[in-house]
Write a structure and sequence with these properties.
8-stranded mixed sheet; alpha+beta; binds aspartic acid; single chain
Length: 286
């Protein structure tokens, strides 16, 4: 039995050699956080949110507290969560002073009639979320942030024991990006996508990921019969041929079959499957 399962990545990019083991360590811990929730019968959404929150709070990955800063030396964060069961999602973009944008994205999905908020308006929704008691206040990323790591976007796909799928992405974006720049991570279909059959989460150069709507394409390959591992490789081949850029992708279906591929230097990744918690970790180094 391969369920429940979780697959987590810490970003595809030009990792410094000495940072790769750190990325792997924190991705691994995040996968354990999510899998523990699934083992207790928790939902895919709860596991995906908790796993992503862990990465946002750890300060070692390019998201939340550890996110890279923009050209004005400010953290502007993007995140998305998707409920594959009903193709529902919540997204935030260029939000400041919020350490866990993934929880804000979930609040937007579950508690508002909208899907996507950006900038100061997203911060206002965050304040509303705290006031409502939906989630507790966590000190802002901007205040807490220490040394920005050389790492990339994070994301995960969780599948609970009932076969429900949830996917996430969360990022500080590209280092020294122009203020207000928004990448693929909060864009439905590009940074991630999920249906009741399959999900994908992407990382890499967002401007190019959006051009090919990478996550949606890879999910489509699985929906039309491709094995998830083959679909991941086909997606990366298509991406490279059409854009010549760098990215990575994780994929999983509702039976717990998974795939991944990257054409970047490295992409730390952990998968934990089943009640026996079978674990596989790789840095996907070229
Ligand atoms: N995809 C992210 C972005 O373009 C960056 C990354 O994955 O490292 O914002």
């Amino acid at each position: 039995m391969q369920l429940p399962m979780i697959i987590v990545h810490g970003g595809a990019g030009k990792w410094k050699d000495e940072k790769i083991p750190i990325g792997m360590e924190y991705v691994d811990k995040a996968a354990e956080v999510g899998h523990a929730i699934l083992m207790k019968g928790g939902s895919a959404l709860d596991a995906a949110e908790a796993c992503t929150m862990f990465m946002e709070s750890c300060g070692k990955l390019n998201c939340g507290k550890g996110a890279v800063r923009n050209e004005d030396d400010v953290l502007e964060l993007d995140a998305m969560i998707i409920d594959g069961n009903n193709l529902d999602f919540g997204s935030v973009a260029a939000v400041k002073d919020v350490q866990n944008p993934i929880s804000l994205a979930r609040y937007i999905m579950e508690e508002t009639k909208y899907k996507f908020f950006a900038g100061q308006s997203a911060k206002k929704i965050y304040d509303e979320m705290i006031e409502s008691g939906y989630r507790k206040e966590v000190k802002s990323g901007a205040l807490e942030s220490s040394i920005a790591p050389d790492s990339d976007t994070v994301g995960c796909i969780a599948i609970d024991t009932k076969g429900n799928i949830a996917a996430t992405s969360s990022t500080g974006g590209i280092k020294k990006k122009k203020a207000g720049r928004i990448g693929d991570s909060p864009v439905m279909g590009s940074g991630a996508y999920a249906t009741d059959q399959c999900a994908a989460s992407a990382t890499g150069w967002g401007e190019h990921i959006m051009r090919v709507v990478l996550s949606r394409m890879v999910v489509q390959y699985v929906e039309t019969g491709e094995d998830p591992m083959k679909a991941a490789h086909r997606g990366m081949k298509m991406f490279e041929e059409k854009t010549g850029s760098e990215a990575g992708i994780i994929v999983a279906d509702n039976k717990g079959n998974f795939g991944y591929a990257s054409n970047a230097k490295a992409m730390p990744l952990t998968v934990i499957q089943g009640m026996s918690a079978k674990k596989m970790s790789t840095s996907c180094q070229k």
